[in-house]
């Protein structure tokens, strides 16, 4: 099981904090935000499982007010773990319903406990199987077996690791909402599983899958998603 997270941090601890979290393969970074506005937009767009919210004495652009604003748009907030160099802010953090509070600079042992606690309580966070119906034929496919999806008018073609192609009579947009966080739209006609990305050529606007055997174009509209894929893989 893998979990997505966003790191909101404008402090000097950003790089070291990111390196500590990267040691845990089950947690994959989908965005790094340094401003309140960017943080709100990315959380609403990417819907991460976990948000690491850095609130430090030297920071004047990030605060607990982010939580209040998120409540205006979301029925349920992602798990919030506050990172701070202010011991006195812990009480306010827990009063606002955060799930964890870690002092910065990060203590690796405390981070490990925090992440293991999260994993223990979120083992069945989302399903790993998608049902594909076509002419009364139901195929139940594990998400990890899907290499990419291609739009074909009002139908969607699923290209699987085995080489098999399955067509479904629903739009790409419909399936995009059902897929786990490691699927990204890179073009109006393509959604890819980043676990199969082997190369990205920014000059040619091309994304290579399955050891460069498959080449798909990406469009400028989804350049932000390409940047996120590069960040996560690297």
Structure summary:
It is built from seven helices and 15 strands.
How does this model look, in words?
By secondary structure, the chain is α/β, with parallel strands linked by helices. The chain has 7 helices and 15 strands. It has a 5-stranded parallel sheet, sandwiched between helices. Helix 2 packs parallel to helix 3. The protein is elongated and about 60 Å long. The model has no long low-confidence stretch (mean pLDDT 89).
Main features:
5-stranded parallel β-sheet; alpha/beta
What sort of overall outline do the alpha carbons produce when their principal axes are compared? elongated
Order of helices and strands: EHEHEHEHEHEEEEEHEEEEEH
Strand content: 25-35%
User: Whole-number average pLDDT?
Assistant: 89
Q: What's the β-strand tally?
A: 15
Distance between the termini: 20 Å
Main sheet: strand order: 2-1-3-4-5
Q: Helix tally?
A: 7
């Amino acid at each position: 099981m893998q979990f997505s997270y966003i790191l909101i941090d404008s402090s000097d601890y950003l790089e070291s904090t990111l390196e500590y979290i990267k040691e845990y393969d089950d947690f994959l970074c989908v965005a790094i935000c340094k401003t309140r506005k960017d943080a709100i937009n990315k959380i609403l767009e990417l819907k991460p499982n976990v948000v690491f919210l850095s609130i430090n004495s030297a920071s004047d652009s990030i605060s607990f007010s982010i939580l209040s604003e998120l409540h205006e748009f979301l029925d349920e907030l992602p798990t919030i773990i506050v990172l701070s160099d202010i011991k006195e802010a812990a009480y306010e953090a827990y009063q606002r319903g955060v799930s964890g509070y870690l002092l910065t600079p990060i203590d690796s042992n405390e981070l490990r406990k925090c992440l293991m606690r999260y994993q223990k309580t979120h083992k069945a966070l989302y399903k790993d199987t998608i049902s594909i119906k076509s002419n009364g034929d139901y195929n139940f496919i594990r998400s990890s077996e899907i290499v990419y999806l291609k739009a074909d008018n009002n139908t969607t073609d699923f290209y699987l690791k085995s080489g098999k192609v399955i067509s479904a009579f629903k739009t790409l947009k419909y399936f995009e909402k059902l897929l786990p966080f490691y699927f990204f739209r890179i073009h109006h006609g393509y959604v890819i599983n980043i676990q199969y990305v082997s190369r990205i050529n920014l000059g040619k606007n091309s994304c290579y899958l399955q050891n460069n055997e498959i080449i798909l174009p990406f469009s400028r509209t989804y350049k932000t998603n390409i940047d996120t894929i590069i960040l996560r893989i690297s």
